[in-house]
């Protein structure tokens, strides 16, 4: 088993995250061209309900596994690692099986009374196998992350993405002659095939890990029988402790996923109340959730990798009562998230129209991106803060913060999206308020518990660099000598980012030690 440092583990997941996000834009670009914004809307409407069920099944279990396996590994308690893994797997399979049965049994009622468009039915049924597949994968992912080996998660993520892209586009095109609802179901079938590919990678990596451990310890087999009698007695406290953390974390995530489900329902019904036809409302919602938000979330490949690596690292530091290391890891995560996310926010705010035209061939949705770009930095900072709260045994606080933001968001959606003058933009205002509020509440909570805060001067320096980058990029876009719009956009973005990096170095926000950590390029700065 290869254990990585915090930064190395984050960089491995970052590399995989960047590749999968870039690859993930292939179906984001191609799918609207195959099934249109309305077809994407049908596909997206099925997702919120799936996310709710997956949250119940996997919400806090991978985090709990990663946290306690990291603790057990730091104490050399390998027997405990095995008990944690087995108990988590039994619990996850049991919950996933029950949820799949409930989902299939009540599908007609859910489609009729809960989801706002009856054409979602076939995509809804097609996604039912995902509950068990993703549930089992999440246990393996938590196991490897707890042992601070991010390579299996990265490889699985890459394989899942590649298979999903190919299968989703193939099946959506294959089923398109039967109608938009069948095309959306075909895209969902591609997701199932992709997740199967990712799970097979996890099973392969786990088999390799067991084989290596078997070769190192031949005495394990002789001790297994003696341990077997103890496992039943030990599994109960393991289960109790597993549920102790996973339930609050699941609750926190469930608030988010339920708010996502209610957001889709309330948005569709509020748009209908504003006098917008169902087909148009579905297309607008599909554009927001299937085109604009994924573009905005591109940099979360980094913040996700930081959050995943942060949990076991902070858990280990907390177990050793190493407060300086906790502050150091948090500062690293927040600084990287802030510095790397800022140029994306500038580009999406300034060049929303050419981006929507070149990427999706739908420039009419650019105002949505322009409205959301200013809050992008809050999205990127939120993941490390939430991971810190969970790693420090404060999942209840994260739950409360998420609940407050979700409640305010849903009230605002009903109030604003039903206004004919605002429509879908009312929903965007509500989402923006939620993002800012939850991030600020998380930051206040972390400050209260461990006294951590970012330096205000760092924010001022990054803000100044963003302004100068934006001015430079806009000037290059207007005065570009290149004939094609996409060439001018690439020149403006590349030149702007280069200016931003130079400003970051000049302002001493980043130094050669930060640059030395970048894979491949880092050797030039060592």
Any overview of this molecule?
The protein has 526 residues and is mainly α. 84% of the residues lie in helices and 0% in strands. The protein is built from 20 helices and no strands. It has helices at residues 6-58, 61-74, 78-105, 107-113, 121-126, 130-146, 151-175, 180-216, 219-273, 278-296, 300-319, 323-350, 352-360, 366-372, 376-391, 395-417, 424-450, 456-478, 485-506, 512-516. Helix 1 runs antiparallel to helix 10 (278-296) and helix 10 packs across helix 14 (366-372). It is globular and about 60 Å long. Mean pLDDT is 81; it is low at 218-235.
Number of strands: 0
Shape: globular
Number of helices: 20
Q: Unreliable segments (pLDDT under 50, ≥5 consecutive)?
A: 218-235
Order of helices and strands: HHHHHHHHHHHHHHHHHHHH
Strand content: under 5%
Largest sheet: none
Mean pLDDT: 81
Q: Radius of gyration, rounded?
A: 23 Å
- Share of helical residues: over 70%
CA distance, first residue to last residue: 27 Å
By secondary-structure content and strand pairing, the structural class works out as mainly alpha
Give a brief description:
The protein has 526 residues and is mainly α. The chain has helices at 6-58, 61-74, 78-105, 107-113, 121-126, 130-146, 151-175, 180-216, 219-273, 278-296, 300-319, 323-350, 352-360, 366-372, 376-391, 395-417, 424-450, 456-478, 485-506, 512-516.
What is the topology?
Layout: H1 6-58, H2 61-74, H3 78-105, H4 107-113, H5 121-126, H6 130-146, H7 151-175, H8 180-216, H9 219-273, H10 278-296, H11 300-319, H12 323-350, H13 352-360, H14 366-372, H15 376-391, H16 395-417, H17 424-450, H18 456-478, H19 485-506, H20 512-516
Helix pairs in contact: 1-3, 1-6, 1-7, 1-8, 1-9, 1-10, 1-11, 2-3, 2-6, 2-9, 2-11, 3-6, 3-9, 6-8, 7-8, 9-10, 9-16, 10-14, 11-12, 11-15, 12-15, 12-18, 13-14, 15-16, 15-17, 16-17, 18-19
